[in-house]
Amino acid sequence: MIHDELQAILREVFGDENLEMTDDMTAEDVEKWDSLSHINMIVAAEEHFGVRFKNSQIARLQCVGDLKDLIMKKRPDLD
Fold this sequence. Notes:
Elements: H1 2-14, H2 35-49, H3 55-59, H4 64-74
């Protein structure tokens, strides 16, 4: 559930309907992933899943899988 919803968010943020999200995906894997789109992705995820991330949590994110894990920690009901 989280995977599909997060993939839809990434597709919208990066403007690529064919984007196939993987847990190990990083900014290096997506051409349009820059600092602004990164912020947009985080904000969109927070709004969609009804959570708020601390700056320290955001700073520790290394890949999309880390973001999924963080969402699951904040919303275990979605697992």
